[in-house]
């Protein structure tokens, strides 16, 4: 223990998360124990607990890492110059594709997302909030450029988020595979139509 | 058995469904057995099986009954005269309130809905399809009256359905209680804006 110097600890925390994510994907969130994670890393469970208070803390950190990747990609698109409508389409499509890859399909990670959403983990709420704000920033850019016309940008942003639920929410992506559904682009067209300037009064 | 005349059988089938629905609400879908249902009705499980092939068949029939009530209310609104925009708002609100009452809150029925949706029961797919068609008929009426302008009515209908997912899907209604969300009327306003006639080109 005296050989463990300060600079190794961030790596250990990161290694624990890498292994945890891999085991969640391979054997599932519920079935993975802290002992399993520790075994792969050739450390004791007690050592894992030096870095994380609980299994739930590990899970929140894994979820945080995955969500952070999506937020980073979203912020990059929002920061680019150019017409807002095209960037909004790209933003909504990117969030959909990244969530599909990360959480659905072969990955058992949507089991973790289900629990996270059901138990109302703070990381989920904060992520949803931030994605809404990023969407709101692009909508705001569109209002400034005259491409969009909305009464209230934050409300339009949360409506856009909610309208995209079948394409954003990992459980809904998984569940709706065999259900009647518009395509991603049809849904985005519909949203863009709602944001477009009004002509004559309704 | 010779005393059981033809006209009693529909009542028995209906009584089984009434009891099944009550037990699903009280003790939960998973925990209710065919024996439980039979016991309340003072009949043998074998007798229940005369009317339903399996527990799943009973569940599909209970789900069918609940969904049928929503479809009936929706069709009544679609059949009324008057401006389409107001009736579309009423239609979307009604579906939300009925699904909230039936499946969420005290009722353990959303456990049944979860399984039904995950296992892709035909009754669910048919219901979603029909609700989409009813919404489509009101959108079509709005296009005819000039209140709405859409390129493709069925696509606009499925987009409207999907956009309302947080307010229609029992699991999402339950899960989103504590999540950032637009109000029901804000979401409907957003959808109506998407359906409204375009003025100048986008």
TrEMBL record, chains A, B:
Keywords: DNA-binding, Transcription, Transcription regulation. Residues 33-52 bind DNA. It comes from the Bacteria. One of its GO terms (molecular function) is DNA-binding transcription factor activity. Signal peptide: none annotated. Residues 10-70 form the HTH tetR-type domain. The keyword DNA-binding applies. PANTHER family: HTH-TYPE TRANSCRIPTIONAL REGULATOR RUTR (PTHR30055), TRANSCRIPTIONAL REGULATORY PROTEIN (PTHR30055:SF151). This is TetR family transcriptional regulator. The lineage of its organism: Bacteria, Pseudomonadati, Pseudomonadota, Alphaproteobacteria, Hyphomicrobiales.
